[in-house]
Predict the 3D structure of the following.
Amino acid sequence: MTEQQDTLLRVSGLKTHFRTEQGTIRAVDGIDFEIKRGETFGIVGESGCGKSVTAYSIMQLIERPQGDIVSGSIEYMGEGARPIDIAALDPNGPDMRNLRGNEIGMIFQEPMTSLNPIYTIGNQIIEAIVLHQRVSKMEARKRAIELLDRVGLSDPRSQIDDYPHQLSGGMRQRVMIAMALSCNPRLLIADEPTTALDVTVEAQILDLMRDLQQDFGMSIMLITHNLGVVAENCDRVMVMYLGKVIEEGSAVDIFYNPRHPYTHGLLESIPQIGLSSRLTPIEGAVPMMQDIPTGCTFAPRCPHVMAICEDDPPMLFPSDSERTKCWLYSEEALPQHAK
Amino acid sequence: MPSETVLQVHELKKYFPIRKGILKRTVGWIRAVDEVSFSVSAGQTLGLVGESGCGKTTTGRCILRLYEPTAGSILYRLDDQLENIVEFNHAEMKRVRQKLQIIFQDPFSSLDPRMTIHDIIAEPLRINRIGTRAQQSDRVEELMDLVGLNASQMNRYPHEFSGGQRQRIGIARALALNPEMIVCDEPVSALDVSVQAQVLNLLMDLQERLNLAYLFIAHDLSVVEYISKRVVVMYLGKIVEIADATDLYQSPRHPYTEALLGAIPIPDPLAKRTRKPLTGTVPSAANPPSGCNFRTRCAYAQDVCAREEPPLTQIDGDRSVACHFADELELTGFSRGGTSRLPIHSALPNMNYGSSMAGAPG
């Protein structure tokens, strides 16, 4: 961790919507958060909660014209004195291209589909380096070999000329990490980086990411549905449900003192080794994006639902260290509506 | 307890040929499953864990003869007698599959999108000509009720259901013929955590009510521990350890089991873990290492491991391990590093309201 705990990225009021034949899908619907320098910030949630769309919005990789950032800002505090609002940049313009890869790197869930099968891994890393830095191809190749060595390939000098299919899943993810780090980004976005990997390889990749963070001092935005991975790697955690942030706090707060009934339900749903007690899952399932309830979106599944929850969407109620979007924490709502 | 055994697998082998060239000559074999033996007792769950490519799914499919085994025997209990179903013909297999069913990982591809839920669940009844159409519909209703689906939705199509509901449909279909055993091939890995817990609880309730035996195949060790009485650990087509779940997780006797347990991420930010990371990846099953399969990644490997293959040997009663040094090694089990359970302080948000935030211990 760096000493300087100031903000690297500030997302405010971000809304990313998609137009479909069934109507508008509010994949990300007004979220706010900050990522500090050098920290690992976790985003958790079940499928369809908008965690990946958040990442794609930051990278301006939203598929247009169906999808678009409709409002909000994504302020990136890089080298210069003035923050850059990513949401206002042209996705294909030079400023965005300069940020993408150079300042913000990204790794994806499925390393096979995110590497180009017809180029060697060396070609793909060298391309990234030459594109962003003024170096010769020879120089870039040298740097690529160094990077591959750093991410733990056993024989980088010969493996640099391998094609992606010649590598195992874990090795491909290492190559993706090398590529993402090739230009020393300040922020690394990892979207379910270990979901497709076996548990022993997952442990290797997460260890590697922690080591690299120490060396490079970058911030990591770690998106995952695995609560174990979150607990072991993140400093702060944000829980999302249906496009909204429902709770945010330090990892210790989220796991030891969850305030939102959804966070609570998630923690009660995971089997824990050595505890034979029966799981208490959350009732029902995540509603389809087309029929999101008015009021609190979690109300239909919530065991503590009150009358107000079905009518009005809750605001974020901050406490000392965490924020929770739930009427149970409202001074006015509770006395009137508590059962 | 031979009378209680529903399934006994003996030295099961499944080799897949590697074909090359225009003539598609066989140039080698992938030893997906290599001399695997285990048994499943009535009304119990046997967990089968291992990393991808260890042969756990192939084992499950061989048991139903969805793959033809290369060698070995599969004894299944029919009318209180264990019969070797490997030699059965098509008609006899139909009889076996009334008693032995399977549910699959992907609830999206295992249901025919053009059939209604009613037709999907009634299909086993129709194939086996059980009951009239009206009786079949009654049975569908009963089954949907049993797995927690709304029976009024029986005329809908699979795409109208969520992943968890589709997995329930798959379970209802498997239960249609009153089986005694179900092979569950990664039944919850495609589901979200909250839904995964619902399906696990459903499977456990059904087991209790119907005295079902499960072969529960999964890669998630926490899920396997939750549902299984006994656990088999596989590596590269072979069994490395079989033991009761509690023993296996608390005191593993095979280095691979230890490594697997050490890699599980613990959902507790204050847990201090002592991880010995396993290096490398699983070698190819077409060209496995000499001697012990695991020696290339084993922290305790010695010369003998490269020369001799350790047999799966019974140690302390109910436990079998395939390691030359099973008696000598001091291995660490799963430990959450101090905390005995995830201590959620705010049991109910209402009760927590207004009180000061309790600091986390540690």
